[in-house]
Amino acid sequence: MKTSKKAEIAVIGGTGFEGLFEYSEELVIGTQFGIPPTIYVGKIGSRDILFLPRHGRDHSIPPHKINFRANIDALRKMGVKRIFATNAVGAINQNFKPEDIIIPHDFIDFTKLRNTTFYNKAPVTHIDVSHPYCPEIRKIVKKTAEELEIDIQDKAVLVCTEGPRYETPAEINMFRILGCDIVGMTIVPEVVLAREAEICYASICYVSNMAAGMQKRLTAHEISKVSRNALPRIEQILIETIKVLPIERECPCATALEEARLG
Q1: Which DSSP symbol is given to 186?
Q2: Of the residues 5, 164, 223, 257, which has the maximum number of CB atoms within 10 A of its CB?
Q3: Residue-range domains of the chain with CATH
Q4: Quick one: pLDDT at residue 8?
Q5: What is the DSSP-derived secondary structure letter of residue 34?
Q6: 153 contacts 100 by C-beta, under 8 angstroms
């Protein structure tokens, strides 16, 4: 379906956040990579926003089957310049605990089978991810949370695994040795594709559980329960952050392709 609808801000909702906001319009957007889940159109203040439920509105798409390229390409086609993502993560760092809210600053990729780039042919493109998450958005999110008196951590390395199974205690121990603080299944390649599309991207994560070996067992129902407790705070942070975003971007994300191509 073609659409003339445009919005510069999008929210990609993760587990438990499929119904994050109220929306006035639903769109199905086709891309060369396939069709993403239904995209919902709404407003925050005077600003149009889009909401894309990463796993589908009914949470029917497992993490290893998400069509990340279709998702990001659809948002790019609709004029999106900034993406806020929400992600459920497990805590590897023992200083974190369930329901903590974290803005990761870096990631390690342990996915295996995913399409991780838009550029599988010429022009050969090597995108820079020295600062994988938009520094401008991260700064505004942190300031907004502090003004709302919501505790938030802004330093964490997230390791992304393939899923859909949870990690083993031995894997978590390895990730800890490598310096990882939290673990999830959906950041990569979403964050990389956003950079290739010259879209600003930042993730607001919530700790749904302690990672394998740090609690007796892990269950999907536990994640859903924790997400319901974290949702009001994350929704508040998102709404107030979007309201104060500057119109113009002052970050390197917008020009990410300028020096990334050979030939």
Answers
A1: S
A2: 223
A3: 9-262 (3.40.50.1580)
A4: 96
A5: B
A6: yes
Tokens encoding 49? 């926003």
Instruction: Report the C-alpha gap between 61 and 88 in whole angstroms.
Output: 15
The most distant pair of C-alpha atoms in the chain lies apart, rounded to whole Å, by: 53
SS3 (DSSP) at 245: coil
Map 204-235 to HEC letters. EEEEEEECCCCCCCCCHHHHHHHHHHHHHHHH
Residue 57 has what pLDDT? 84
Ramachandran angles phi, psi of 243, nearest 5°: -60, -35
Query: What six digits make up the tokens of 71?
Result: 């998702």
Amino acid at 88: A
pLDDT reported for residue 2: 52
- Is omega for the bond preceding 189 within 30 degrees of 0, making it cis? yes
Low-confidence residues in the chain, pLDDT < 50: 1
Strand, coil or helix: 91: strand
- Rg (C-alpha) for the chain, rounded Å, is 17
How many other C-beta atoms lie within 10 A of the C-beta of residue 116?
17
- The DSSP code for 65 is G
Length of the chain: 263
